[in-house]
Amino acid sequence: MNKNKLSARDVFSSKFGVIAAAAGSAVGLGNIWKFPYITGVYGGAAFLFVYLGFIALIGLPVMLSELSIGRKSRSNVFGAFKNLAPGSPWKFVGMLGVAAAVMILAFYGVVAGWSIDYVVKAVTDNFATRSPNEMEAMFVNFIESPVSPVLYQLLFMLMTMAIVIIGVKDGIEKYAKFLMPLLVVIIIVLCLRSVTLDGASEGLKFLFNPDFSKLTADGILSALGHAFFSLSLGMGTLVTYGSYIDEKNNISVTALQVTIADTVIALLAGIAIFPAVFAFGIEPSSGPGLVFITLPNVFQQMPGGFFFSILFFLLLTVAALTSSISILEVVVAYFREELNLKRNFSTILATVMISIIGIFCSLSMGVLKEYTLFGLNFFDLLDWISANILLPLGGLFISLFVGWFLGRKKMEEELAKGASVVSWLLSVFIFLVKFIAPGAIAIVFLHGLGVFNFG
Ligand code: PFF
Q1: Tell me: the pLDDT tens digits for 76-103?
Q2: Measured in whole angstroms, how far is the alpha carbon of residue 289 from the centre of its chain?
Q3: pTM here?
Q4: Which is the closest atom of ligand 1 to the Cα of 33?
Q5: At the N or C end, where does the chain have fewer CB atoms within 10 A?
Q6: Atom of ligand 1 nearest to the CA of 262
Q7: Is 373 helix (H, G, I), strand (E, B) or coil?
Q8: Count of C-beta atoms within a 10 Å radius of residue 352
Q9: Which domains does the chain have, with CATH numbers?
């Protein structure tokens, strides 16, 4: 039965295509925009170390779990749980995932829109003569204005929609394959410039020299949430992509490669940004504008900065695109397989829905900024709820599902496809998904929400 379903569904055409698509999903605004800014907000190195711990102990095993669930079920995230655990409430984990996808793409498209605007600003040479303060004013003016950020957001959503309509093999895979490596090269160039600025060492200290007394419960929860966000976990993106991976592929290796690539790129983004933040006297905790304010200052200071700034924001937009298509694909696969809608129609429907919510996110930066809940505007609220609640909750259920419901034997069967399973590694994996990941998520979660307090 799996065979029939497989031939009717999309499949990635090569091993490199699988990695490029999965890494393309993981590497995005999360690494380059969000990671530096929340690391700044939560005080630097201590936050980073907690984040790295979560990546290794929770992120990696949950990623392997998602890929396994996807390939085993050959289904969208809702259908996956329905297939593997028929007649049980597990399918609601899939619903949670679809809801998270809608929320994340709504604000993600807004930030990606900012990135497109910065391509235009880079071309029209707006950065060349501005001081850090002026750079900040320019950013704030732009995101608060009611029209142009919305138009750029809609443009970005249209681009996302176009690629998803073309389909997995010709759309997603083809674009991801050659653009990601280019992005890495340019970030490395930025790092080299940033660490050689006067006063750069303070930034490296901030990023790598931890002061654990600065950690808060909220910071730890955010580190967990961001580990999920950055690796594209907890909502079924990698269940969906896993369902397109063929049985010759070693998904354990894929999970490891994607996790390493994602983490290295976040670290590189940190190394590109914090030395410059300190060198230019920018406040590290200045929030969502951090990258957009800091990097244009770096470009000013480098030979060929004009050219690099255009290329950088162009590639940031592309990195956002390889992530946004993976988020949209979660919703589209669900619409197609569960509601029996055609790919084109599903894609258009999902895009319109998400774009409308996204418009409110964008406006909540400016004209609607008075409307807040728990002190957060609509944009921050969607970001916070999806990353810090829905994704960890999804991750909790996914690890419980694999650890307790599927269990060692079925997982061994799945992981043995295209690979030879190393028994002790399998034991470590099962231990992590059975106990460590769910336990840690539950504790961080309840602690972060203030349900209990370790003092
Ligand atoms: N991982 C992406 C990033 O870091 O930009 C964002 C993302 C993609 C989050 C897919 C969640 C997801 F399912």
Answers
A1: 999 999 999 999 999 999 999 999 999 9
A2: 18
A3: 0.94
A4: 5
A5: C
A6: 4
A7: strand
A8: 11
A9: 2-449 (1.20.1740)
